[in-house]
Amino acid sequence: MLRYIILLQFVFEDCTWHFISMSCHMHKLTSGTGRATVEPVKAGMFMFNYKLIPCKKKKKKKKRASDPFPGPAPLPEERLQKFKRREKSKLPNRKRRKLRDVVARSEVVSEMAQKRAAQFDLLLPEEAGFLEGDEDEDTCMISQEDIAEAVDITSGAKYFNLNLSQFGPYRLDYSRTGRHLLLGGRRGHVACLDWQSKQLMCEMNVMESVNDVKWLHSESMYAVAQKKWLYIYDSKGIELHCIRKFNDVLCMQFLPYHFLLATASATGFLQYLDVSVGKEIAAICTKAGRLDVMCQNPHNAIIHLGHSNGTVTLWSPNQKEALVKMLCHQGGVRSVAVDKTGTYMVTSGMDKKLKVYDIRAFKPLQSYFLPAGASCLSLSHKGLLSAATGDIVQVSVSFPPYSMTKPYMAHRVRGTVWGLHFCPFEDVLGVGHGDGFTSMLVPGAGEPNFDGLDANPYRSSKQRQEWEVKALLEKIQPELISLDPDQLCHVDQASYEQKHKERVQALGFDPLAKEKFIPKLKKKGRSSSGNVERRKRQVAHEDQRVSSLDHHQERKKEALSGLRSALDRFKK
Amino acid sequence: ANSSRPFLSSHQMKVKVLSRNPDDYVRETKLDIQRVPRNYDPALHPFEVPREYTRALNATKLERVFAKPFLASLDGHRDGVNCMAKHTKSLSTLLSGSCDGEVKVWNLTKRECVRTLQAHEGFVRGMVVRFCGNSFFTVGDDKTIKQWKMEAPGYGEEEEPLNTILGKTVFTGLDHHQKEGVFATCGQQVDIWDEQRSSPIRSFTWGVDSFSSVRFNPVETELLASCASDRSIVLYDMRESTPLKKVIMNLRSNTICWNPMEAYYFTCSNEDYNLYTYDMRHLDRPVIVHMDHVSAVLDIDYSPTGKEFVSASFDKTIRIFPRDSGHSREVYHTKRMQHVICIKWSADNKYILSGSDEMNIRMWKANAAEKLGVLSPREREAVNYNQKLKEKFQHHPQIRRISRHRHLPKAIYSQAKELRVMKEARRRKEINVRKHSKPGTVPVVSEKEKHIVTVVK
């Protein structure tokens, strides 16, 4: 074996590090001079003469600074409230331990999801727009030109007029992503364009009158209600279908999650077309004459129709009669709009009134008198209400109480307004009128943060294809349309009770009934028949007491809530 | 950043209009992945429940589409497969014994037989691998217990047992202790053997009968349970000289299996087409009666998680039951599979192995629609999400109907229908009798109590 003798003098700061990195062993390492044998793995034995002069270590007394804000960041209550799905469910009886566990665990999970979503809200990139006037300056006095001048160029370019005086007046529709605009002139002019880049996708004249135009699920197809039939074109303007089952259509609504095109016709028919399979789902004769006022509730896909006798009726494809009939106006109804959350319905009528209803409780909230009466209404994502009175478009601030006497914005266009639509995810209001089309800037109208998986204005064609497949896969069946869209997740108590009744009848006894108390035989002579009888009676009395207590409490509650009057005791 | 600052004009008004920079929303180069900004606001996601329901429905349908449980058939035996044993250490090894006394060792990953040995004359009645995995025991109709090495003999060596014990009577089953060198056999009586000795260290009898199966408790390792032909299930403690207690049922139980996780529960397969889960502390009524088979149940094995068990039946089907449910969640059958004699659930909780009359051993997936192999993270996430959805909406009638739908051979389908009619008639008659007799004279006997004759201590 080779032996090397190396005389070295080391000055270590931290000797162990050096030796470990050499992967060898050192014995009896002490400060001072001496000899150490070092055995590398292969190369034989080294011998070191060393001198260790350990450096004085700096006193690194770095105390860990205590966190001034311990724990997770607090979340404001209203933001948590925004993501709340439903009330906390009551935990079941302790006896049903398994069910109790399941409910408690799911409660924890949903609470966590709610918190996560609320925390994520901080990271949203955009903020909503706004418009504030000078002191003692009304925002409604600010002209569109001034706003367009004040904002950046791209936003300023969103205010524009299209002078189309030849074939007007115009109806319009924005696609769900807000990128594409569809215009339909009364005298047959149909055009669709990417309105932000101002690129025309197609333009044509269908050579007959056009009643309404509507985008279907994506920007590749749209429906046009023409003089006689309903037609479907693609974005190049090629006629795909002429649907002869749908005649004399006056207005249309597209239900994006159901892939249903709802049409209302001059003959009083409300029809539903499933655009994914091209089948008529339902044809309902409303028996209410010409139907030219229509809107959808985006929250539950119920169709609202306005009639000439002042009623608004609510329809689903599953029922031949109206779900609800509301008498809203003394004259005919001119326009109806429902907000995004399905809370408010705004109607305007021939009696020159504009009314706001709470559509969940079917209660009126507000009523105004507008001297000219509103012919068109539209609600934005953020809840701004726009109303067209003659050739003036008024926009009122978000959410009731709206103030129409002192609107948020106002703009005069060059003809009577025929169509009015807020652009999704943009601060833009599109106005179709007798002299063409006007795109207005309305700061604060649009939802600033879109969801990329739902409606993405910047999606590529690949992303659109992927979205289309996913959306078709989770198309909601028309049978699921009802006033309460969350009904599927409620417990069906009624049919459970019915089933239980049938089960009891079939079995001949109630399997869920409380077992009859059988006293245990106790030892040591305590089970005399008298004692047993007493114990039985005790339990029976306890049961009786519990049930009577419950009854008593219920009555007390009723009395407190005012449901029960003093005279009710004489009821039979 | 510019767009978020309010602009000032000559009017001194403050205005901000939404203006997004497309660069923030579109990928920079084609090599990047697409940007997908999210906003979880419920107002932007209407129809949450109906859409989830639709997804759950689709997931349920796809599950039925992908449900292809049959994996492989291992053929090679020259007579019906009578018993099987899982290797205690190796997942890929299976041992099987047939009615002609042949024992085969299988490699499950390669799906081939790696070793064949003629162990007995007549049936191989029982087989068990020692806890160390180095050797295994077999019992046969020739009244012998043989211990074999797990390794195959070298070239030129003869296939010889390590140890042979000649008993007085025929053995019908055996099981090995979890930790010690002790095993139990059953036949005319239940014997406890020390590996080192040639005579039993203890013998249990309770009346004159013959036993068909004996099993050690996996947790309380000194406890045993056995099924006897006098319709009883007997519990023993190895340390005592007499049996603990027994329950006598209406019909004979064939085999017994302990729940490996909650080892105070055991389940027995019975001749009356049912399986019964008992709590060993309360033998007077079973915890659950598992029904669905239409003929005698021959064998049962628990999954290693203790949440489910699988049963083999004379009606040519295999059924999987959740531990706490009265009906099966799954039924497996093929055209060619005859009476299934023995069944095992693999130790990785993924496969089921069944040995049947027509000389084949079949390998099944424990979860029929599961995708085998490595899943990518996105795949795994999707699977988990779908699983949760199915769980959430499992009680909706449409979803339940689809997820419960199974194709059954016509014979079994009609037999099940017939049994249902018979049961219904019996129940109707009982109700009528009760209606027309003095109240209280015809008591309601629950399904659980119906099949128990008595408990003896």
From TrEMBL, chain A:
It comes from the Eukaryota. SMART domains: BING4CT, WD40. One of its GO terms (biological process) is maturation of SSU-rRNA from tricistronic rRNA transcript (SSU-rRNA, 5.8S rRNA, LSU-rRNA). Its main location: nucleus. InterPro entries: BING4_C_dom, WD40/YVTN_repeat-like_dom_sf, WD40_repeat_dom_sf, WD40_rpt, WDR46/Utp7. It is found in: Nucleus, Nucleolus. Coiled coil: none annotated. Residues 521-572 are annotated as: Disordered. Gene3D superfamilies: YVTN repeat-like/Quinoprotein amine dehydrogenase. PROSITE patterns: WD_REPEATS_2. Residues 407-485 form the BING4 C-terminal domain. Signal peptide: none annotated. WD repeats lie at residues 326-367. The keyword Nucleus applies. Part of the small subunit (SSU) processome, composed of more than 70 proteins and the RNA chaperone small nucleolar RNA (snoRNA) U3. Interacts with DDX21, NCL, NOP2 and EBNA1BP2. This is WD repeat-containing protein 46.
UniProtKB/TrEMBL annotation, chain B:
One of its GO terms (molecular function) is ubiquitin-like ligase-substrate adaptor activity. The keyword Transcription regulation does not apply. WD repeats lie at residues 74-116, 290-331, 333-374. Residues 366-452 form the Sof1-like protein domain. GO terms for biological process: female gamete generation; maturation of SSU-rRNA from tricistronic rRNA transcript (SSU-rRNA, 5.8S rRNA, LSU-rRNA); protein ubiquitination. It is found in: Nucleus, Nucleolus. Transmembrane segments: none annotated. The keyword Ribonucleoprotein applies. Pfam families: Sof1 (PF04158), WD40 (PF00400). Keywords: Nucleus, Repeat, Ribonucleoprotein, Ribosome biogenesis, rRNA processing, Ubl conjugation pathway, WD repeat. GO terms for cellular component: Cul4-RING E3 ubiquitin ligase complex; small-subunit processome. Pathway: Protein modification; protein ubiquitination. InterPro entries: Sof1, WD40/YVTN_repeat-like_dom_sf, WD40_repeat_CS, WD40_repeat_dom_sf, WD40_rpt, WD_repeat_DCAF13/WDSOF1. Belongs to the WD repeat DCAF13/WDSOF1 family. PANTHER family: DDB1- AND CUL4-ASSOCIATED FACTOR 13 (PTHR22851:SF0), U3 SMALL NUCLEOLAR RNA U3 SNORNA ASSOCIATED PROTEIN (PTHR22851). This is DDB1- and CUL4-associated factor 13. It comes from Myripristis murdjan. The lineage of its organism: Eukaryota, Metazoa, Chordata, Craniata, Vertebrata. The gene is DCAF13.
